[in-house]
Amino acid sequence: MEHLTKKDLKTIERLFKQYTVEEIADAFMIPRVPLSPEEEEKEMEKFRAMRHQEIASRTPEKRREIKTLRIRYQVQNYVENIEPKEHWNFQHFLNEYIRAQEKKDKEFAADVDVKPYVLSQYLNGHRNPPKEFLIRLELHSNGLIPASWWFRLLQKSKEAELMQDEAIREKERKHVKNKIELAL
């Protein structure tokens, strides 16, 4: 309140003496007059038309930016979530990121200086990318999606695989002797 003048402070003081907090709040609120269902639908239709026009007028750069931001928030939500989802993994998000840039795999591979077949191996989960590639992804997104998040996506993928692979548990069970006994 340092920017208020003495006159402003006196006016505020006078208002608080004259009116209750609720009355002051009501004076600054704009009441909403309920609309009939027909008027409500008409207003929604105007809103939809305005929204459609706004979406249609976006530049290709703005569309890519919005898609990339969507992926950024999905990645952030996923890496901070405790339960990994099987279908969301590093490969899924890398593919989504490339599609958001509206590029073919070969074009994107050139952007981040990897051979197209190497990118294909990353996308198909046949090969894990090195940390240098994760840094390139961060740099390509101009820091929007940090390398540490790409790394955490890789870890989440491994975690989901580990948690859901019952066959390996059965296979490895025969190698374990003298398990500890705990009464929980």
Concise overview:
This protein has 184 residues and is an all-alpha fold. The chain contains 10 helices and no strands.
Count of individual beta strands: 0
The structural class is: mainly alpha
Question: Number of helix segments?
Answer: 10
Unreliable segments of 5+ consecutive residues: none
What percent of residues adopt helix (DSSP H or I)?
A: 55-70%
How would you sum up the major sheet?
A: none
Structural features:
mainly alpha, 67% helix, 184 residues, 10 helices
Could you walk me through the main structural features you see in this protein, from its secondary elements to its overall organization?
The chain is built from 10 helices and no strands. Helix 4 crosses helix 9 and helix 8 crosses helix 9 (147-164). The chain has helices at 6-18, 21-28, 37-56, 60-80, 90-100, 105-111, 116-123, 131-140, 147-164, 166-173. The longest helix is centred in the middle third of the chain and has 21 residues, at 60-80. Helix content is 67%, strand content 0%. The model has no long low-confidence stretch (mean pLDDT 87).
How do the strands and helices of this protein lay out in sequence?
Elements (H helix, E strand, L loop, with lengths): L5 H13 L2 H8 L8 H20 L3 H21 L9 H11 L4 H7 L4 H8 L7 H10 L6 H18 L1 H8 L11
